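Let us work through a complete example step by step.
Step 1: write down the sequence.
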Amino acid sequence: MKILCVIDSLGCGGAQRQLVELAKGFKESGNDVAFLVYHHIPFYLDDVKRYSIDYTCMEEPNYFKRFFKMRKHIRTGNYDVVLSFLEASSFICELSGFPYRKWKLIVGERSANPNILKSKKRKLYRWFHLLADYVVANSNENIKIIERINPFLSKNKCKVIYNLIDTNIWKPVDDYIPLKNEKLNIVVAASHQYLKNAKGLILALNLLSEENKKKITVNWYGSQSPDNSFIESRTLIEQYNLTDIITFHKATNSITDKMQYADVIGLFSFYEGLPNVICEAMMLGKPVISSSVSDIPAILSSDFIFNPHDTKDIAKSLSLLLSFPISKFIEIGKNNRKTALSLFDKSIIMSEYLNLLK
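Step 2: predict the structure and record it as tokens.
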């Protein structure tokens, strides 16, 4: 098959990472694969080129010109399948197939953002899903939102396929030592946006007893966004004298290594689709502390699920983690990996996508 993958860019976002992983899997299965983007952010470009996947970027500031350039590329490419992720990219692909098309069109929903229900523009995007063959989301919560917006979508057209995780990369290491130096090392992999709720984490850390503060360290890896969340978070850290507890690092391609030697992986967002970091943490055999968002409560132990709007609830989950012996961390990690293998294994996810494509 000749497959075109369409997304805004190859930046370091979770949707971009998943589409790149799928493209690599399609290529390994003997398919002809290409990427079409409209912003040149080459975070994953080397990965794409390593697999000899074609890459086309149509950077055009004028929205109308951009649409017609991309439409022409899609319609003249003789593709068997077009797979798009994210709302704007999917909207372009759906309109590009109008009034007729010869290719199969699969659009991917990647966010269970409740604000979609409040935005006329975002709701309108979902009505154009009627022009696609399938709508694939990576969480049941996301599909519920789509079905509320567009009740005319056939349930047979709406599919839930979880994130793909390569078990050859995401596997536990033998030399990991839990609670090294008698400190709980929490790693967070998330960009600095208000929705990622660094503020909630900082306020919760400040609520811990002085004794517990000495037992915990947080390393947050992620890029800065245009909003002021990063600056405000840094100010709060200094205000509460937490500089020895929480450290912000730049986004890194070596996040696997950082997570391998963490005791716990954290997610504090107000909303998500199905976060890659949670799936990857589970595959690494790590305990996870997370907001009660998306399908996470159905996947993880409820002991470490909290209300992201309630700093006391976050602090309660952190305190519970600090009370556990090493044996408990190992037990939880093993259970998480077992669950991850049944839900996110690359062979399972690739099979589900290839069945749709064929």
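Step 3: interpret the result. Residues 326-343 form the longest helix (18 residues).
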